[in-house]
């Protein structure tokens, strides 16, 4: 008997916009019930990969399959996919319920199933309190949740979310995370693009790090993080007062580099900072004239892995 196809399989996918390559040689397998976080700098190709998986674009080379079908040409396959674009795509003058009814029609749900489907997604996305509100009057966080709800009407197996928490406040972010956690608990597979490392650590089983249109690292979060759990901690130096040239040189010698434009916050990667603990490092830096107010010490996480991966694979234009 043939094994069931995975939830999604991308093989050797390449995509260009006009003549500009956006993705090349992308291979990816996503099993059912798995949440994959896509990380990468602006322009890395996250949205392009999501649009390929959604069947909104066709690869120039290679193939994209969802549950064994072609999401670009096969309507049945498309119905197993929920796509939540980065921008809010709702009718601002309609109520939440009216919007969801329109999307249920567009999803091809028969009339007798629509009411139940709308009620189910309203519950799943905790939108009961705003069912009859005009969408334009809702906060950005609520609008994002309605955007997600609209993608769930046909009970998709694969849900693709392009930066679902971009620009929302902490409360709305937590509400969206709760929705995604409940979808995952319900057995759906999720692909979530994000610039937020803590979001990826919290939600994902697997992580793919993209740069310049290729996947530079992909694997289970646990496996990818394992080498870091035994790595030495990172140090962040918070500065106050004037940083002169000699003090800056001392900071850089200790392995620090600036994190912000006005050079108030500096970070030494794991393994740098000479193995000193936070207090000893603070004393040594002050001795060298660095106006350090505080040293923060923390275990390296996904962000450290991301930096390592990108540093090991410089942008293609600058690679030798
Ligand atoms: N419609 C388009 N026409 C032309 N070029 C495009 C188009 N969409 C994306 N690109 C280019 O393709 C590359 C990949 O873009 P993509 O939006 O997939 O990256 P991303 O990782 O999602 O970036 P971001 O984090 O900024 O959303 C970039 O160089 C981008 O400028």
Order of helices and strands: EEEHEHEHHHEHEHEEHEHEEHEH
Number of helices: 11
CATH class of the largest domain, named Alpha Beta
**How many beta-strand elements?**
13
Keywords: ATP-binding, Nodulation, Nucleotide-binding, Transport
Pfam family, one: ABC_tran
Domain ABC transporter: 8-237
Protein name: ABC transporter ATP-binding protein
Keywords:
320 residues, alpha/beta, 11 helices, globular, Rossmann fold, binds adenosine-5'-triphosphate, six-stranded mixed sheet
Topology:
Elements: E1 8-17, E2 20-30, E3 35-39, H1 46-53, E4 61-66, H2 75-78, E5 81-84, H3 96-106, H4 111-124, H5 140-151, E6 158-162, H6 170-185, E7 189-193, H7 197-203, E8 206-211, E9 214-220, H8 221-229, E10 234-239, H9 245-253, E11 256-258, E12 265-268, H10 278-287, E13 292-298, H11 302-312
Parallel strand pairs: 3-7, 3-8, 5-6, 6-7
Antiparallel strand pairs: 1-2, 1-4, 8-9, 10-12, 10-13, 11-12
């Amino acid at each position: 008997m043939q094994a069931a196809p995975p939830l999604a399989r991308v093989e050797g996918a390449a995509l260009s916009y006009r003549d500009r390559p956006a993705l090349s040689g992308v291979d990816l397998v996503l099993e059912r019930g798995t949440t994959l976080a896509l990380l990468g700098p602006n322009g890395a190709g996250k949205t392009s990969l999501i649009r390929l998986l959604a069947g909104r674009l066709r690869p120039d080379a290679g193939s994209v399959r969802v549950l064994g079908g072609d999401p670009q040409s096969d309507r049945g396959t498309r119905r197993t996919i929920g796509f939540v674009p980065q921008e809010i795509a709702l009718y601002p003058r309609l109520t939440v319920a009216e919007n969801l009814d329109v999307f249920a029609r567009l999803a091809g749900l028969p009339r007798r199933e629509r009411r139940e489907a709308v009620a189910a997604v309203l519950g799943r996305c905790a939108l009961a309190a705003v069912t009859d509100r005009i969408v334009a009057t809702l906060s950005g966080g609520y609008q994002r949740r309605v955007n997600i709800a609209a993608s769930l009407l046909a009970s998709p197996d694969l849900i693709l979310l392009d930066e679902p928490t971009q620009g929302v406040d902490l409360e709305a972010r937590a509400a969206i995370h709760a929705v995604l956690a409940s979808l995952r608990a319900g057995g759906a597979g999720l692909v979530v693009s994000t610039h937020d490392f803590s979001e990826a650590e919290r939600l994902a089983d697997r992580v793919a790090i993209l740069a310049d249109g290729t996947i530079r690292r992909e694997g289970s979060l646990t496996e990818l993080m394992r080498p870091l759990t035994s790595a030495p901690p990172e140090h962040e130096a918070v500065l106050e007062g004037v940083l002169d040239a000699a003090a800056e040189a001392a900071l850089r010698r200790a392995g620090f580099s600036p994190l912000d434009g006005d050079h108030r916050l500096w970070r030494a990667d794991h393994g740098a900072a000479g193995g000193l603990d936070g207090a000893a490092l603070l004393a040594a830096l002050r001795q060298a004239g660095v106006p350090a107010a505080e040293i923060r010490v923390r275990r390296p996480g996904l962000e450290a892995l991301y930096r390592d991966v990108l540093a090991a694979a410089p942008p293609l234009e600058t690679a030798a």
